[in-house]
Every structure is written in structure tokens, then in C-alpha cells.
Specification:
about 90 residues, mainly alpha, Methane Monooxygenase Hydroxylase, Chain G, domain 1, 3 helices, about 85% helix
Length: about 90
Amino acid sequence: MANTAQARKRARQNERRRLHNRALRSQYRTAVKKVRRAIASGDKAAAQAAFQESMSVIDRIADKKIVHKNKAARHKSRLSAAIKAMG
């Protein structure tokens, strides 16, 4: 356990940040899954709409460094390629 007031405050702040980051990471994963489900359904228009919605979520969370920017770019690229392959 933390011994100083500063360390106790740091522990409180870290816990709050951890929970907030976990919520954002979950939001990111949900956005990716939503697009994957739309692709699996076979409806290209719905998949493109879901992809457009999830792009801002993916970018926003990558900007906050919750996930690495390259991971976000990889997901966007692969989802986009999957949608293009639906044609």
C-alpha cells in the first residue's frame, strides 16, 4: 500500500484512468465488431455505413493512445479491404 499522500493520490488517479481507458478500449472493440457483423451479413451498404461510423471512434481512441496508431490503421485497412471485396 502507498505510504505517502502523493503515492495514495497517484494510486487513486491511476485506478480512475485504468477504468476510463478500459471503457474506451471496449468502445473501440465494439466499433470493430459492429463493422465485422455488417460485413458478415453480406449487405455492402450497411457495412460501409457502419465503417464510416466506426472510423471516428477508432481514430479518436488511437489519438488518445489507448491503442497504438498502427493497430488502428491496420484495423481500418483490413475492414476497408473486406468491404471492397464484398462487391
